[in-house]
Amino acid sequence: MQELIKRAKELLENGTVARVLGWKAGDLPYNPEPAYFDSTESLADFVYNGFCGANLSKYMIEASKLEGKTLVCLKPCDTYSFNQLLKEHRIDRDKAYVIGVGCKGKLDIERIRKMGIKGIEQISGAEMEDEADTLTVSTIYGEKSCKYADAMLERCHVCKGKEHQVYDELIGESKETKDADRFAEVARIETMTPEEKFAFFQKELSKCIRCNACRNVCPACSCRKCVFDSNKFDSAQKANVDSFEEKMFHIIRAFHVAGRCTDCGECSRVCPQGIPLHLFNRKFIKDIDEFYGEYQAGMDINAQSPLTDFTFDDVEPGIVGERG
Amino acid sequence: MSIEAKEEFRPKIVAFCCNWCSYAGADLAGSSRLGYPADVKIIRVPCSCRVNPMFILRAFEKGADGVIMCGCHPGDCHYSTGNYYARRRMTLLFSMLDYIGVENGRTRVEWVSAAEGVKFSTTMNEFVEKIHSLGKNVRLGDLRCRN
Amino acid sequence: MQRIGVFVCHCGSNIAATVDVKKVAEMALLEPGVVHAEDYQYMCSEAGQEKIIEAIREKNLTGVVVCSCSPRMHETTFRKAAEKAGLNPYMVEIANIREHCSWIHKDMEEATKKAVILTRAAIAKVNLNTPLKPGESRVTKRALVIGGGIAGIQTALDIADAGYEVDIVEREPSIGGRMSQLDKTFPTLDCSACILTPKMVEASAHEKINIYTYSEVEKVSGFVGDFTVDIRKKARYVDMDKCTGCGVCQEKCPSKKAPSEFNRGLNTRSAIYTPFAQAIPNVPVIDTNSCIKFKTGKCGVCSKVCQAGAIDYTQKDEIVSQKYGAIVVATGFDTIKLDNYDEYAYSQSKDVITSLELERIMNAAGPTKGHLERLSDGKAPKEMVFIQCVGSRCADDRGKPYCSKICCMYTAKHAMLIRDKYPDVNVTVFYIDVRTPGKNFDEFYRRAVEQYGVNYIKGQVGKVIPQPNGKLLVQGSDLLDNRQILKEADMVVLATAIEPNEGVRKIATMLTASIDTNNFLTEAHAKLRPVESPTAGIFLSGVCQGPKDIPETVAQAGAAAVKAIGLLAKDKLLTNPCTAQSDELLCNGCSTCANVCPYGAISYEEKEINDHGIRETRRIAVVNSALCQGCGACTVTCPSGAMDLQGFSNRQILAEVDAICR
């Protein structure tokens, strides 16, 4: 982290960048938040540790409108989102100085809590420099520990790899943390009966409070104005909200980002209700891979997105029924 | 059992038909007097690629029991490529609906040319029959997602 | 709020017999925005239209719903009526209560209920309609005719005679098409070449006609009145301007083993060749597959003997790009391949031939110089058997489901000509039905039977078996006598089904013209618009639309020409105003929509936007409404809903959905 801060200072001082987009400590030790730093002094608050899961790509939409370049810290998986936004002309490459930062898997406080570790005061072992594969958690009930890998976000268990897709320079080591099948859960749901599927999603979506956190954090969901907030589809009548709205919202949201979603997992990370929202996006990704060939959004900026492309002998929609 | 339950189930079915092939196919079914149940109501769109998933979900939201989309046969689109995009979109959408537990039989895509009045009528008869076998759509219409 | 009038048509009893039209009008009055509702016997009649006009004027209607037949029938009629009354024509919507209701339902209550709902949906839509204004586009006063057979030639001549420029694109080295391969024509028995070649000469000499032979359509863009077409002129390796057509090169060419396409492969031709003596243009082409110079680099005889110095081995394909206002498709037909009909021994015996091959054999310029002889041993046949409906009227997918229409007549012609010239040859025809509707057709067939003693047997042939003695054993049945027939023949002629020429599907796709499962181009209306494609500006001439004989082809060619002339005579066309539009406040500028636009109608520009007080320069999508054809692909791909389609807007369609599901 020190190397990163040193380099950021240099770039600010020599005028290459006008500001730095990174993370600063939050009000709790495990919730650092995205932040801009526009002076070398302010960089004193800069943090980058295992809890810096937030994908900063989307902030570059606004940062692209600012005067001067913005130094943005991107983890390997964030760079896919950055590329996708570049492809969609939402961000200006010339306005960004990308430092690819190292990543050894990001942590999920909810996972730690689920292990029964409560009253958390301090967590050590989450710094980038820490070599140990365990976390030490000091709680009001005393010191506890857990394996780093066990505390990782779901998305890190299905890591896309340690390569940055786009950068101006790289700082820090990355580690591939994949130890699970990305589509296992989707495949499990697919084998359920319609009743079970319905019950599963009803249970999950019944938690939705329409706080829009998923939409706000999603780098693909970056419309100036969401269809659910505009009158274009008569879909913005919140007072009139009925039965189906949550499902409609999540299906349409997933559909709108289909072929554009990089599977960054931010939607699930930020959902205050813990809804596994990535299961919607990943279903589309799985189908796209199976029907139209493997496609990773944000990998090749010149590749045609599967939903704006076709072949003469694509599968027919009837395949859904035939697959059973 | 309530009184309504004894009433004959009359499904609500929305059919999106492209102007150039399927709508004309439906016209031909009409002029050839090839009947299908009155439960099917057709909405004319210029091309199958005009059908937004939002329209389909909205129909279900408002109580439709089945939604079918008809377009020109692949390769015959009046706008040359529209139905190819529609095919991908509907494949993914229907797969998603299936995934969240909506019976796959409630959604269907059929390619019907202007000359296929018979196919239009047969398709609609089959589809209505399928919806009858699935019964009323309770999953997408009438529940707020609360336990 | 709109002020909507609802007009319910009885269509005589077509609607009124199954739909309670009074009830539909009554129920309509309960819908929001409806201020007037009435029913009438024939809404499309003068008096019916007058009722609409009157109501618009008297009740200040801002929208109209007509509950009647399909909008594909009378939408234009009612829109024009509304316009007369001063209402924007796009404020009119049709509820299709005939084709989609009264004609398919029997129960009055049920049909009425459905008609009410369809009306409700149309009212809901009109409530959201906005006045639209068509744009204008120019008409390029030049026509393209694809195909240089008799259909294409006739169409081109008729258009050119009206004073418009016409280009003919022909794939083969010469114009003439199938008709040039025929020997005689039914029912007059005049010589095909004798009546065709003057037309070919006329076309090539016409100052308004420009012929591209040995050329193919490569790419089509644009729309009615303003098509841009790329034509690939394949390299001939002979300079068209220098060649005098003396023919010495063909004579001296040492490579003479290539099968002659014109003679259906029954004999051979040289590597440098014109397909037939009367070819137009009379300029040969070099077939690089058989040319020794192209294969080995050595030879060059043609170049040496050409006095005019016309041979140019370095010639390359050339792409010509040209603008047209109208395009006529006249791509014609070929006979089907007989791979699925092994039982007739076509591939096993040289003496089993197709009827088109017989045409070449009978022709004085053909492979046997017009002598009827067996291709296996050159002997004169004594027994000839004709088999009808080979691949036509086929119930399974081995052949074609349709009747090829011309076979009965040309078989009668063949039989008659053979009996006339070779009275000692017995001719037997196996048929399912003899179909001879047409002027002087049945008389012609009866002459074959009565005067020329052709033996017609109603029944099909199951098998043709080549015998060791060189004869062909024909196994058939006589349905009228109910007996099996075994007959030894010297030659068997198959009345092979015809099918649209190979490649027509590719052309249809380029033109976005509809095509049916048999690869025939679809007409805009089977009865009322038989020479127009549903795609504006595309016209159909000849067999590409369906099987037909020469007089029908010529008649249709003239009809297609008239339609094309009608279009070219206009200076400007009104364009469909139902085009896509981008809301600049919502547009993300993400470029996704342009990816799915088949017309390249969407571009992006940097524009200063005032978004509720926030001024910024944004990249936004702009639709060129002259290019947009209104398919709506962009509207669905746009995640923010910025892109919408006029006349079929998101809110309009959703209103219809809501009204139907209510």
- CATH homologous superfamily assignment of the largest domain in chain C: FAD/NAD(P)-binding domain
From the 3D coordinates, which CATH architecture of the largest domain in chain C would you assign?
A: 3-Layer(bba) Sandwich
Name of the level-1 CATH class of the largest domain in chain C: Alpha Beta
Quaternary: heterotrimer
Outline the low-pLDDT stretches of chain B. 142-147
Strand order of the largest sheet of chain C: 10-7-6-18-29
Cα gyration radius of chain C (Å): 31 Å
pLDDT average of chain B, as an integer?
89
Helix % of chain C is 25-40%
- Strand tally of chain B, please? 4
| Overall geometric form of chain B | globular
pLDDT under 50 segments of chain C (min length 5)?
none
Q: How many distinct helices of chain C? A: 18
Structure class of chain C: alpha/beta
Estimated share of beta-strand residues of chain B: 15-25%
Count of extended strands of chain C: 34
Ends distance of chain C: 21 Å
> Describe the biggest sheet of chain C?
5 strands, parallel
Which CATH top level class of chain B fits? Alpha Beta
What does this protein look like?
The complex is a heterotrimer of chains A (324), B (147) and C (662). Chain A has 324 residues and is α/β, with parallel strands linked by helices. Chain A has 2 domains: 1-106 and 161-180, no CATH class; 181-324, no CATH class. Chain A is built from 12 helices and 9 strands. In chain A, a hairpin with a 2-residue loop joins strand 7 (134-139) and strand 8. Chain B is globular and about 40 Å long. Helix content of chain B is 40%, strand content 16%. In chain B, helix 2 (22-31) crosses helix 5 (117-134). Chain B has helices at residues 3-6, 22-31, 53-61, 82-99, 117-134; strands at residues 13-18, 40-45, 66-71, 107-111. The model of chain B is unreliable at 142-147 (pLDDT under 50). Chain B contains 5 helices and 4 strands; from the N terminus they run H-E-H-E-H-E-H-E-H. Chain C has 662 residues and is an alpha/beta fold. Chain C folds into 5 domains: 4-126, Rossmann fold (3-Layer(aba) Sandwich); 142-234 and 317-332 and 501-568, FAD/NAD(P)-binding domain (3-Layer(bba) Sandwich); 248-305, no CATH class; 334-499, FAD/NAD(P)-binding domain (3-Layer(bba) Sandwich); 580-646, 2-Layer Sandwich (Alpha-Beta Plaits). Chain C has a 5-stranded parallel sheet. In chain C, strands 20-27-21-22-23 form a 5-stranded parallel sheet. Chain C has a 4-stranded parallel sheet with strand order 2-1-3-4, sandwiched between helices. In chain C, helix 2 (46-58) packs across helix 3 (71-84). The longest helix of chain C has 19 residues, at 108-126. Chain C starts with a strand and ends with a helix. The mean pLDDT of chain C is 95. Chains in contact: A-B, A-C, B-C. The interface between A and B is large, with 53 and 42 residues.
